[in-house]
Design brief:
This protein has 11 helices and 6 strands. The chain is of the alpha/beta class. The strands form 2 sheets. Strands 2-3-1-4 form a 4-stranded mixed beta sheet. A two-stranded parallel ribbon has the order 5-6. Helix 1 crosses helix 11 and helix 5 packs parallel to helix 6. The structure holds adenosine-5'-triphosphate (ATP) and magnesium ion.
Length: 267
Amino acid sequence: MANQKGGVGKTTTAVNLAACVAAVGRRVLLFDLDPQANATSGLGLEKVEGASAYRPLLGEGSLVDKIQNTVFERLEIIPSEVDLCGLDIELARAENHLHQVRRVLQPVVASGRYDLVMVDCPPSLGVLTLNALAAADGVVVPLQCEYYALEGISMLNRIMSQLHDNSVNAALELVGVVMTMFDGRTNLSQQVVGEVREHFGERVFETVIPRSTRLAEAPSFGKPIIHYDKHSSGAAAYELLAQELLARLDKKAGAEVVAEQTSVHVP
Ligand SMILES: Nc1ncnc2c1ncn2[C@@H]1O[C@H](COP(=O)(O)OP(=O)(O)OP(=O)(O)O)[C@@H](O)[C@H]1O
Ligand SMILES: [Mg+2]
């Protein structure tokens, strides 16, 4: 989940999508890479000193040891805490500084323990977000239904092309754009969704996340919406979004398998 704009729904989307994907039977790891640690508290974990990916990212110890269970089945987390805020500067000095998230995640991915690893990024295009983009197969961009929504995504798009063109991560794709905090009573919300769809076409998920008090209060109970208020409009929306996401990811994985199989026949 990335968007350098603050407060657009990255964490809400990360926590709730992760929970919905786990609820339909996939094994999910949520990697909280934001020093604010909102995803960590949103899943009911305390911020504990030394529990984050800080040391592994600096080459000390293994990321696997930082993985924690949540009370939700098939959903595990690498928590964050405030020490991650110094990491941008320290990583910037390190060699290969864009590839540290990829490096620490490699054994986790290779273990086959998870069907999906999601990273919740901080609201900047700093070293932490760039590291996440350098490690990811795909980006999901939450956009708030507000007037300046498109401004954020043009910068992110530019960064993604640069990562592509400089071979930092040639595999990186825009998996989808999620419109968040939609308010059906205002023309503005409708207009913004229309404009974003014009720009990004099918990349925009059909499912739009409504503005809902239940979604905003769920994190204070340490619960994703499907466990806090299963019958709310927010829960229904994130359940649908999870289906859409999985359909896109499964299609992408299928296409990659086919490409690998056909490449065997290419001399
Ligand atoms: N659909 C929604 N309806 C109502 N409130 C929402 C919704 N989505 C998010 N919020 C609230 O808006 C605020 C910002 O959301 P969130 O923390 O998910 O954004 P973010 O992009 O992760 O922020 P940051 O950039 O600070 O990490 C939070 O208080 C959250 O509870
Ligand atoms: Mg956040």
